[in-house]
Specification:
It is a single chain. The protein is mostly beta strands. The protein has 3 helices and 13 strands. The strands form 3 sheets. Strands 2, 4, 5, 7, 9 and 11 form a 6-stranded antiparallel β-sheet that branches. Strands 1, 3, 8, 10 and 13 form a 5-stranded antiparallel β-sheet that branches. It has a two-stranded antiparallel ribbon with strand order 6-12. The termini are far apart.
Length: 214
């Protein structure tokens, strides 16, 4: 077992590492300390949203809705912006997510991570019990990330589900790496596609098929 003082030191010291203690999950106390030191940025910051080992995140207004009639199929080698359009949730009227429907949303919060931390985005248990999933594969947040997180929202229930602006939609937890990443997300050599995003962002998988310029 690692002593509490060791955990605090891991949060405070960017290059601190303990052999065999990779991927240590930060507690509520450690999350608050990391926020106070600027190693974790969450805007807006509301301490009441801190859970025992995570922070609740909320639904923003904008959703990117798929218009399936515009294409016969999705080609992962081609841009998909024309396949989707952005709609907004108003203050007094929810968005209705129908069974089997899939839309992209966004967290109300803006996040930044130090280069020796990673994060996991997960759904709220109460919403999962209603059939609402908030991500398909994009639950992992790399060290060095900056921006709002895109939500992959799907309804696996048999009845429509309402989505309200500002509702608690998920929770984010943080893990300590053994060392700081040599190339954090956003490094020029990585070609990070989603750094700094501010709203639901369509897939940019087509960029993986493009040959680099000579």
């Amino acid at each position: 077992m690692v002593a509490p003082d060791s955990v605090a030191c891991m949060v405070q010291c960017p290059h601190y590492a303990v052999a065999g203690e990779a991927h240590m999950v930060l507690s509520d106390r450690s999350i608050k300390e990391a926020v106070a030191r600027g190693r974790i940025v969450i805007r807006p910051w509301d301490p009441s949203c801190v859970q025992p080992a995570s922070v609740d995140v909320h639904m923003d207004r904008k959703l990117r809705v798929f218009r399936n009639m515009r294409r016969p199929y999705i080609d992962v080698r081609e841009p998909t912006e024309d396949l989707t359009e952005v709609v907004e949730i108003t203050d007094d009227k929810p968005f209705i997510l129908h069974p089997g429907e899939f839309v992209l949303g966004s967290t109300l919060e803006y996040f930044e991570l130090a280069d020796d931390l990673v994060a996991r985005l997960e759904g709220k248990s109460s919403l999962g019990r209603l059939g609402l999933l908030i991500h398909s594969t994009a639950g992992y947040v790399d060290p060095g990330w900056k921006g709002h997180l895109t939500l992959e929202l799907s309804n696996v229930a048999r009845l429509p589900i309402t989505l309200y602006y500002g509702m608690r939609i998920g929770q984010i937890s943080y893990q300590q790496l053994t060392t700081a990443a040599e190339r954090p997300y956003g490094s020029p050599s990585l070609g990070s596609k989603y750094q700094g995003q501010t709203e639901p962002t369509a897939s940019m998988s087509y960029k993986d098929f493009r040959k680099p310029s000579p």
